[in-house]
Each structure stands twice: as C-alpha cells, then as structure tokens.
Amino acid sequence: MAEHAHTPPPHTPKVHTSKVHTSLAHDSAPLHVSGTALYADDVAEPAGMLHLAFGRAPHAHAKIVSLDLSAVRAAPGVVAVFTAADIPGDNNVAPVARDDRLLAADEVVFMGQPVFLVAATSAKAARVAAKLGRIDYEALPALLTIAEAKAAHSLIEASQVMRRGDMAELAAAPHRIQGALEIGGQDHFYLEGQISVATPMEQGGVHLLCSTQHPSEVQHLVAHLLGVTSADVTVEVRRMGGGFGGKETQASLFAAAAALVAAKTGRPAKYRADRDEDMKITGKRHDFTANYDVAFDNEGRIRALRLELASRCGCSTDLSPAINDRAMFHADNCYFLENVEIVSHRYRTHTVSNTAFRGFGGPQGMLAIERVMDAIALHLGRDPLSVRQTNFYGPERNLTPYQMAVTDFVADRLVEELKTAADYDVRKAEIDAFNASHPYLRRGIACTPVKFGISFTTSHLNQAGALVHAYVDGSIALNHGGTEMGQGLNTKVAQIVADVFGLGLERIRITSTRTDKVPNTSATAASSGTDLNGWAAWNAATTIRERLAELMAARNDVAADSVVFEGGVVRAGDEVLGFAEVCRLAHLNRISLSATGFYATPKIHYDRKTHTGRPFLYFAYGAAVSEVLIDTFTGEHKVLRADILHDVGRSINPALDLGQIEGAYLQGQGWLTFEELVYDAKGRLLTHAPSTYKIPCASDRPAVMNIHLWRAGDNREPTIHRSKAVGEPPFMLANSVFSALTCAVAAATGDPRPTLDAPATPERILRAVKGSSL
Amino acid sequence: MTDKLRFYLDGEIVTLSGIDPTQSVLDWLRYTARRTGSKEGCAEGDCGACTVLVGELEGERLNWRAVNACILFLPMLDGKALMTVESLKGAHPVQSAMVDLHASQCGFCTPGIVMSLVGRSMGACGTLGADPAEVLAGNLCRCTGYGPILKAAEQVASVPFDDAPVREALQKLHRDTLLVLSYEDPLAGLTRRAYVPCNVDDLAEILIENPDVRLIAGATDVGLWVSKQHRVLPEVAFIGHLMRDIEGTAQGVRLGAGVRYSEARAALADLSPDLGELIRRIGAVQVRNAGTIGGNIANGSPIGDMPPALIALGAELTLRRGETRRTLPLEAYFLDYGQQDRQPGEFVESVFVPAPKASDVVRIVKLSKRFDSDISAVCAAVHLRFDGAVVQGARLAFGGMAGTPKRATHAEAVLTGHPLAPERLALAAEALRADFTPLSDVRGSADYRLTVAGNILKKLWFDIQGQGGDVLGVAHG
C-alpha cells in the first residue's frame, strides 16, 4: 500500500543510525504528520467500487421468522443484497469455535447482529437502504448481564478452577474479610474504525486490504467462507489507525462481508463501519465481577484467598476462554498466594461477543487482587503499600497459583526505587493533613505494582516468520508477520535488521504485512510483536549476512566470523566494500540474497486441564504511584500526578517504549474512571459514539507525570537484544488510579470496607461516599 | 442571485455548483478532492481527526478558526478560506516538532492534531491564552497519552503566517447577492435547495415565504442529523455569518444569534467568571468555533449548554419575523421538551444578558463524566441578589433536570427573604425534589441528578465562606 502512495512524504526524516537501543522516530511519523500515511480508506478507489452496510437486528435474542428485502433491493443505488443463504462456504467469522456468523441465519443472538448485507454505489446509499429491510422476528428471552446469565447457568464453557494449598487456612488466620468489586468493560475506540477493501482476483481469488491485527486468520476465514483455498486469498495490512486488541478477531466480520460481495459481484467492495455501528457490533473488554474471601495476619500477609471471578463473554466463544484464563493468571499479580483458590465463570449472554483488549483479561484479574490489598490495608489501618510489599513474591515464596516459579521477580526493587523517587511517604503525610483540614475535598495516593506474563498462553501461537530480501543496490525489503497499529513494531524490527547488516535505517524498506509473503502468522497481540517477529527477522537477515560473510571471507582468505558489517560497509581482512557492492558481488556469484526467518518461543508449556505449567517465557514488571482528588459533594475527581517506573528489559527503542507506557496508563485510567458502557433494558448499547462514551482527552492526563524506564532493566531470558514486551503491561499501571480513588473515598467515609466499583464515574464515587442512600 | 459556491484553498478559488448542499466538507475533501489527510473518526464533531482551519474576513482582519470538517457543510465555506493538513506541505514547524518528540503512534488522529496546533500557532480563534490541553480538548488520541503532543505544542507556540494573499483573495470573493444551490438528490428523489443569504433582511424574507426552511448556523447539531441519521433536509438556509454583533454596555451584553461560543466568551466572562468557565467546558475549541449562542437556544435542548446560566442571569430573547420583533424572558421560550415559543417564519435574532451587580453571587456548575468536551449530567446556575445579608432575589436554573432548561421555583422561594445559611441551602436542596423529576440516562441516574443538584447548593456555602474549591481548581503540590 505504501508503495503506491500518490505523493512522496514531503517531510524528510532525520538521518537514522542502525543502532538498536536508540530512540529513533516511528518510521511513519513524517507521513502521519503530513497526512500522507495511507490507511485503508485513503487508497484511491478503483472504478466500480461497491460500498457496504449491514441490515441489523433490533433484538438481543430472537428467531428470524421471515425476511422481506424487496424494499432494500429497490432502493436507489443498491446493486446487490445478500443473506446467509448466499454464502457459498462456511458462514463463520469466529476465531476458534466456529460460532460467530457473518450473517444471522435463523437466530439473532445480540442486539444489532448483522442479518443481511447491502452493496450499493455509495456508502450513504448502502446505509440508508440497510434500514429498509422488513423482517419478522419472534422475540426470545434475552440474558443481558452477568447476574442474569449466572441465574440461568448460561456459560460458554465449564467454570475453571486454579487451586493450591490448604483452604482451611481461611478460617484459621487472625483476620478474614469478604467483599465484591464490579469492573466495567471498555470499548477499544481505535480512531480508525473497522474497514476492509476486497478486490476480486482471477480464478475466484480475492485480495483484501484490511485493518486487522490478524491477517492470517482473516485469510483462512475468508477462504472457508468463500469455499476457496487459503492460497486464493491474500490479506494485506499496511497500518492500522489503532488496534488495542479490537482488530484481532473483530476485523473478520467486515473483511468477510467485503470478500463475499467481491466474490459474488466481481466488483471491488469496501466495508467501512461508521463509529456507531463499529461500537454497537464489535466486542469489547469483558466486564467482570470479583468476589473475594481473604484471610491474613496482623501485618496483612495473606494466609488464604478464595477469589471468584465472573465475566460477561457475550453471545459466542471468541477468545473468551483464553482471556478469562489470563485473568486467573494475573490474579496473583506480584503477590505470593500460598493457599489459594481462583474460580472463573465465563458467562454467555445475548450481548456482543466480548474480545481481546490490551491486557487480555489480565487487568481485571489484577484489579481484583489490588482491591483485596486495599481492603486488607483499610481493615488493619495500615499503609496499603506496606501491605502490598509484605505480600510480594520472594526467594522462598515464588510459586504462582499455576505452579510456575517466579525466578525473575524485580517488583520489590523497582517499587522501592519508585517509592523514593515519588516521595511517597512525605506526600502521604501531606495528603492526610489535607484530608483532615478540607471540608469536602479528599485526596488519595496509591502505589501499585505490575507483573505481567509474556507469551501467548495458547503455546502454539508463539511463533513468527519473516522474509528479507537484499537487492543488488544494497537496499533491504523487510517483511514479517506482525502488523503495525501505531506501536512502532515496524521501526523496532527494522532497527534489528539494520543492526544485523550494519546499515542505516534509511536502507530498510518496511513493507506492508502480506499473507502471501509470510504465511500462517499469529495475531499481533499478547505484546509479542517484537519478541517474535524481531527474532524471526533477525534470523532471516542473519542468514543473508552469513552468506555474504562467507563470500567475503573466501575472497580474502579470512574466517567468515571475522567479517564485519558496520557503517554501511563490509570489512573482510584488508578489503572494505560498500554493502551494495557486496550485494552485487553475491548476485554475480549466484548467491541468494533472499531468506526467510522463523522463531518459536522456547521453554513454554501449559496443561489447561490442571491449570499448571509454564505459560510464560518471562514477566514484565512496572509500578506506578498515582495521586487523586475527589469532591465529596459532586463525585468528581481529578488525577493530579503519576510517577511510573517500568521495566522493558534492555529497550530496543526507549522513545517508543515510553510512548507505549504513557499511552497505556492513560487508556487504563480511562477504563477505570469515565469510560462507561451503558446498555438499556433491551440490550441496546446507549454509549456508541464519543458524544456519550468518553475516552481520556488531553486535560485528563495528570498535570504532573514522571515516567521512567527502569535503568536496571534486563531480561534473563534470551529475548531479542534482551528487551521485554511493552504493549500491554503498562496498561495495568493505572490500577494505582483506582486504588488511590478507593483511598480517597475511604478518607471521606472512614469506612474500612471499600465499596467503589469501576469505572469510578462521578455517580459511582458519590454513591461510594454517601453509601446506599444515593 | 448566484448558484456558484466559491472558497479559497491553497492559492486557488474553488467554484462548486450543483452540489449536495448538506455534503460535509470532510467527504468532499476525502472522496472528491482526494485530500485524504483529514480523517473521519466519529462524524459527530467529537474526535477532531478531521480538524481543518477556516479563514474569514471580519472587516480587514482575517480570522482563522479550527473546526470539524465532518459536520461542516460545503456551503458554509462560501466566501471563506480553507486550510487542510495538505496545505502545510509537511513543512510546518508543528509537524517537525511532532516527529522529533515522538508525538504520533498510529497516526490517525495526527493530522487533526497538527491542524489544531497550527491554528494555535497562528493565533486562531479560541486559542489565545488557552493552554495546550485546552486547545487539544477536541482532538482525541487513543495511543500516546498526549504528553509528547503537549510538549510539541509548548515547543511551537507561535509561527508567523503571511495572510495577505488570503485576505486579498477573500476580498474578491465578497458577495452581495443571494446564493441559492439546487440539487437533484438521486437518493431522496427530490430537488433540494439551500440558501445562503447575505443579510438578515433577506433571511427574514426567505422565512416569511417558506417557514419550513431549516436554519443552520454552526451545524454542531444539525450536522449530526445528516452525518449520523442520514436525514434529508429539503430546504436549508445557512446563516452562521449573520447576526454577529456583540454589544457590551454597563447594563449587560447583547449577543447576536450568530455569535459563536468562542467569540462570546470574553464578553460573558466579564459578566461572570463562572460564565466564561462554563463556555470553556462546552464542546471543545472546534465546536465552540462553530456553535452559536443563538443556535444553542433555538434548538431547545433539555441540557441547554448556555440557557441555564443565561436564565439565571435573567437573559431576554429577541425573536424576529419579517420586520416584527418581540422580546421575552429566555425561560419563557422553552415550553416543553422539543417545543419552543417560536412562530412559523420567526427566528432568534439576539439575546441580552444583564450584568449582575458586584454584590450578587453568581455560581455556575457543570457536572459531566469528563471535564472537557462532554455534555452536562447536570448544569446548575445560581444567581442571588442581596439586601444586606438577606437574599432579596434568587434565580436558580438547571439543565439536565427536566425536558427543558428550567428554573427551580420552589428552591428559589426557600432562599428568598432569608439570610444565606447552611440550613437554608439544605432546605433549598430538599425543595429541588419538588421542582424536578429528572430522567435516568447515560449521563446519570435520576437519583444522582437530584442528589448532586442539591449538593451543589450545599457546597455554595463553603464557596461563599472562602473554604470552597473544586477538583479542577486544585493543582498538584
């Protein structure tokens, strides 16, 4: 896609160096700022392009009795209308369980589910016509909430239990408390909505330009749906305008629609969802309830914990089993739980199927244990941070509830450093004084740590491929299986490849991700993009370099490993040649300048039946101190300051990593404060646009924000350049905001039982302050 | 009369006729002009990914303002200048600063952010004296957390811009005839018409002849009818360039119906600092640069961003039909939900806001989930006049509590004739339950609204005692 940009980027980037561990600008930054970066909707439309819209069901649960689409077909601009009966192959867009339909066939299982598909000459014509379907439904009872699904025992799979130690300790410890926490969901609100453009190719093939984190899955689903082979379908992704997990499985629906129309009509077809439709029909972060029963000693050290998690998965399986597993994996966070039982219920409801979202269940599990820490501290009247530290993993206390030894624990050191840097003790005393003096404003401060497991917990997904070409002019074309959604993956991988060849980054052309170049890839998800694709690309590049090194070694009669690639030249013995010259020589000597690379994460294994094993290669760590202020008359709050220390190992690109950390914190802050998904009694989402669904804006960023990468950061595991994944872990730094709010509410009420639920909207804060009287 | 719409873009005059008069500038840019730098993120003026700059002559001065192209209709550009991210040719210091400071990640919101910051660097409307976070309140970014963007804004606060060529071009575009655009709408199957009158008298005449013409000033509301509901508006008149006078006297401020929020802010802040702060909380720069005080009143929203405050201050509305004018208290204009006291052919011409006395207490509080660019759950405006220590007159008006912006007459009665005291305010808070039966919706439950409306009154005591404060007013440290 970038290759057919109609105008060259006018802003000339700075000259790059080849070094990893350097803060280079995002490779697309000059294109972003000049408006020349092409997203799927920006590519010039070919003649005859059809625009698509779904006709959607007005029921959360209903049987389709009859379908009359004559008015839709007769509407101006309409070229074709399709229903489930028109799908030649498998009517399925689900990632794992084959239970998501492109178009509902007999039964509708969530409000707004697509029932038919309109193809018209303009987006407006399609959208207007899509409202003209006359469909008779027989409404069926709908389960909308966790509570309703629980009462009806409606599950997407059996409840899971992770257990260790002796739960009799619950009754034996000096203290025991119970409590509950509700945790709201979250819309991804990527700025670029879902979009796919399908172009018919010869012999029934189709090319798809998609905004997806998972090109291979789109390819495979579309092949099955059209009844063609995977080799007939090519999926291309140049960049996304944000993903955050929302384009891991959810892009398939729109891609499948576009592909179906292209295949059926022989014309190119584009599905560009508008914001409202996007928010109404795509899955979100799971909302959870957490119930805890915890026993502890006088210092607040947990003796036993029973934690019951329940989530709203929605109408289908999607990735909910793995997401809820990850919630369980992170319910320990940094704390050793000797006697523990974690139960996880995955409820099926007649709502949109919830899906991956940065953290993938981890944030909900982690927030639950942080609430437990706050509840213990309030109960004992102790500083919550000291309670957290008391419970940290340690040398003799290093086994997770899933029996993996935590051997790389650094949160203790990191938190101690942050506590000093953020002046935690002094500020806490000041806050206490302020709270004692102000008639109605209350402050709160909290320090919460993060330990996040890195690897897909479905072990086979931990693999990646890359394809690197060197051309005779010394330029490098780099392909890998990862997708660029803003995180800077392409920049990092290019840095890795540039480093292998001793070239500047300007010599590396990062191309779009294509399934016909690198096949069978995993989603760019689980924070794994650089870990997996960086190694795969390094392997590919190194294969080529070794061939070049052998050539140069033979010419100069030196050992191949003495050949040096540096500063754009290749040095072998006394001979120094430009990299391009070496490539030309290789070509003349009939040596391949192209190589694939592959990587599979070592060491990991997991038995889901017993919930034991080593699901993660390593852990990423971080901690944040947040300070908040609440108004006990109005329930309003403000996050005043945040101090963050985060471990990214040895950073490949510190600037990009800092960007991930800050962005993740603010996204987490939004999740826990004012991003509220409100449904009506019929299951209709009422907050489906930025007018009603409020993500953080610039003024919500804490006025004081100190973010640092942890200087001592390293990775014991042999990750690429000893870096650590950074996409998801810092999202949970925002748990400190919620804990700080919990403390501020407690300061207002004097009640040791925390009752604040998430998101902490003004209404919820006021309710927590006033008790049930509101 | 003319049927040609003309505007200035990058050194050229663009002339359009036969266009859909409710086509958005964004769609025209992206799909006709193939300038795809401006993005659609929401099509409702809330995300700012489509931010462009519009320049217009006010006398000799060229005023630029950032607006959302997704809810800007093409005819609203008539006689004006348009600047998009492409106009900068990648060479603006804001753009280099954004690259150098790592201020873009996915890049989709970036062109809009660049345009907001370029506007600020040119001293565009609504940016003077505003800190970067305020300038960017209407530009959502989901990736960066804003820090690097704010830093770029601080680094490039002001960049000289030679506006002479634009001024010259716009002088030539001046028009003193009516613009009428006719459009055969293939989807709606009818001929639609748009009028762009060049003076108020023409507007009055058009409305007498055809009272069903839909008036569009800033399009911050009507824009969404089209962009999101796909409503067909058979006949419209664009009037955002009319009735733009602000007259300040010792008695108060008269605002023409076409005065935009951002333009009214200084004059209203002079009347009451709270009123100025309220305007800062309405929409964001792009919305305040488009939305008008008159349009906000005329559309009769139950929240009514401005009306609760204006009612509390005793504002009077002037309506005009043909050559006939009448004046009524603003609260009398709002009859019921979706129903206003406006006759066929009549339009809002101006609103007069009386100046409070120095000894009056004026407190305006807006509560919303997010501070910037959010709609009130409750907006409360309290205006108390004293005779010594005794409350002589109380005007309490609320938005979000009823089908219209409405006064709290029971609570007013409780306060009137007594010295202000915590017990009185608690009684007044209780009396609100007789004044209002609010609804529950996405912005708050009925319970929350009633409780918090009362709490605003109770909190007033601490304000008056100098012990107040709110979360926005307290900085860290």
From TrEMBL, chain A:
Assigned EC number: 1.17.1.4
Keyword Oxidoreductase: yes
Domain Aldehyde oxidase/xanthine dehydrogenase a/b hammerhead: from-to ranges: 34-141
InterPro entries: Ald_Oxase/Xan_DH_a/b (IPR000674), Ald_Oxase/Xan_DH_a/b_sf (IPR036856), Ald_Oxase/xanthine_DH-like (IPR016208), AldOxase/xan_DH_MoCoBD1 (IPR008274), AldOxase/xan_DH_MoCoBD2 (IPR046867), AldOxase/xan_DH_Mopterin-bd_sf (IPR037165), Xanthine_DH_Mopterin-bd_su (IPR014309)
Top EC class, one word: oxidoreductase
Keyword NADP: no
Superkingdom, natural source: Bacteria
Gene3D superfamilies noted in UniProt: Aldehyde oxidase/xanthine dehydrogenase, a/b hammerhead, Aldehyde oxidase/xanthine dehydrogenase, molybdopterin binding domain
Keywords: Molybdenum, Oxidoreductase
GO molecular function, one term: xanthine dehydrogenase activity
Pfam families assigned: Ald_Xan_dh_C, MoCoBD_1, MoCoBD_2
Name the UniProt record assigns to this protein: Xanthine dehydrogenase molybdopterin binding subunit
Provenance organism: Asticcacaulis currens
From TrEMBL, chain B:
Span of domain FAD-binding PCMH-type: 187-358
Record's keyword terms, sorted: FAD, Flavoprotein, Iron, Metal-binding, Oxidoreductase
Single annotated GO MF: xanthine dehydrogenase activity
InterPro entries membership: 2Fe-2S-bd, 2Fe-2S-bd_dom_sf, 2Fe-2S_ferredoxin-like_sf, 2Fe-2S_ferredoxin-type, 2Fe2S_fd_BS, Ald_Oxase/xanthine_DH-like, Beta-grasp_dom_sf, CO_DH_flav_C
Enzyme class: oxidoreductase
PROSITE patterns: 2FE2S_FER_1 (PS00197), FAD_PCMH (PS51387)
One Pfam family from the record: Fer2
Record-listed E.C. numbers: 1.17.1.4
Protein name: Xanthine dehydrogenase small subunit
